[in-house]
Specification:
heterodimer; A: alpha/beta; five-stranded mixed beta sheet; two-stranded antiparallel sheet; 4 helices; 8 strands; disordered C terminus; B: alpha/beta; Nucleotidyltransferase, domain 5; two-stranded parallel sheet
Amino acid sequence: MAKKTPEINASSTADIAFLLLTFFLMTTSMNVDSGLFRRLPPYQPDVEQNPPKYAKRNILQVLVNRNNQLAINGEIADVSTLKDRTIEFILNPENREDLPQKETKTIDMFGPVEVSKGIVSLQSDKGTSYEMYIAVQDQLTAAYNEMRNMKANEKWGKDFNDLSPEQQEAVRDVIPMAVSEAEPKNIGGNK
Amino acid sequence: MATFKREGKKEVPSLSTSSLPDIVFMLLFFFMVTTTMRDVSLLVANTMPQASETVKLEKKSLVSNIYVGKPNDQFQAAYGTEPRIQLNDKFASVEEIQAFVASEREARKEEDRNSITNNLKVDRRVTMGIVTDIKQELRKANSLRVNYGSVKRPTR
């Protein structure tokens, strides 16, 4: 009589498979790309000669030089103050003479509202580091996000991100993101 | 006459776990298939800057990546240490961006061609000069949706 082969104990294959599974779960990073989204202005070669004129009070001039120093309206400032400066500039709560004018527009869901005419003009140098540039862009985005959140909370008591797409669109019209990037300058020589 | 044999106490048969490995293997294959590995090998240093207001990029199929950074050590002999642009799997010059944008457009479906986002994955030590050049080229190519790739700063 042939000897019966004993059945191989398969209970450990589950453990092995689990080990492999956890390995793949840990190592494969589902890296979702993230970043700051911007829309570039269309290329218009003729406009450079005749840039549109804006009143001085409607422009917040942000300059970053090649040494990564930041100047707001000609005064050296720290990056961390840029957000509050931008919010103050755009909202102009006290209707000051040296801060932007407001324009009354009729917007869906809001009715007639005052929309700031303020524009942030961002000028960077060829030698500015990308890290600094992102820090500045981040501060500006933070300022606009905060203002939109504020408006959304005033109107619907919800954060901007929790609104419906139509409501978001309306808030975007009330606080339009107006960041203009000046044509690059080359102050500090080639780099 | 048939008699029913009773062998001791009745026992609950042990649960068969033989199908457990199959289930787990199925899970394993699922994860192996769905997780996509990075499709290009990086030729340049690429540590992205941190920002707090980042948003996630939706629709991966509509993203075209432009890498900028210092060439990796093994390419420095040939390409130097100045920041370079990497498109797909090779180094490129600023002038090649327009052709790259056009080829990316060709690869997409017609209705998606205007919603391609250019993901600028720029190393944080790069200076703005090359970035502005790229932006100008993108404007000329009329591909205006741009994402400044950055990593979410851990909240304090």
